[in-house]
Write a structure and sequence with these properties.
It is found in: Cell outer membrane. Keywords: Cell outer membrane, Lipoprotein, Membrane, Palmitate, Signal. The protein is α+β, with helices and mostly antiparallel strands. It has a domain of 87 residues: Beta-lactamase Inhibitory Protein, Chain:B, domain 1 (2-Layer Sandwich). Strands 1, 2, 3, 4 and 5 form a 5-stranded antiparallel sheet that branches. A hairpin with a 6-residue loop joins strand 2 and strand 3. The longest helix is centred in the first third of the chain and has 26 residues.
Length: 180
């Protein structure tokens, strides 16, 4: 083999080897992370009206449209082809918390609530705890008073050194001398 042929073969195989390495690293990590180490920040997305058990307890058959709007808010879906049905859809997407979606449908007859359909709704307290991000903190060591005293003291900073009085304390005369 000649040297130019070998050089051409190496130049052709190097890009292929690099491309195959890229495809193998993608399969090792989740698609939303960078090499399984870094996860990009995702903005919280909240859409719709939050409807809990306490809020739905206020909705009773016979309420008017305006009363329902005051309690639940403006419906997310008010279909002109189904004028007697309002749909309240709530979705939340938060990083580190499972996605949530709830749908409440209110049906009207003669501009009064006839019935409503909903899946089981959480209480307000359960809802807040379900969207709360778990905070991971490093475990702090339990130290005794003797262990705390044995810890080395950090060196004094320059500002702490300046705060200490230097030399004799000065006393200044009053700003205004006594007037006769």
């Amino acid at each position: 083999m000649t040297l130019p042929f070998l050089r051409r073969a190496v130049l052709a195989l190097v890009p292929l080897a690099l491309l195959s390495a890229c495809s193998s690293t993608v399969s090792l990590s989740k698609p939303e992370t960078l090499f399984g180490l870094l996860e990009p920040y995702r903005v919280d997305i909240v859409q719709g009206n939050v409807v809990t058990q306490e809020i739905m307890a206020q909705i009773q058959p016979g309420l008017g449209r305006m009363q329902v709007r005051e309690i639940l808010g403006t419906p997310l879906l008010a279909d002109p082809f189904h004028a007697d049905r309002w749909d309240y859809v709530f979705t939340i997407r938060r990083q580190g918390v499972p996605d949530q979606r709830r749908v409440v449908s209110v049906f009207f007859k003669n501009d009064a609530v006839e019935r409503f359909d909903t899946e089981p709704l959480p209480s307000e307290q359960a809802f807040v705890s379900s969207i709360d991000k778990p905070v991971t903190r490093k475990a702090e060591p339990n130290l005794t008073a003797e262990q705390i005293q044995a810890l080395p003291k950090p060196p004094k900073t320059e500002t702490e050194v300046r705060k200490q009085p230097q030399g004799a304390a000065r006393e200044y005369p009053p700003l205004e001398a006594g007037r006769p």
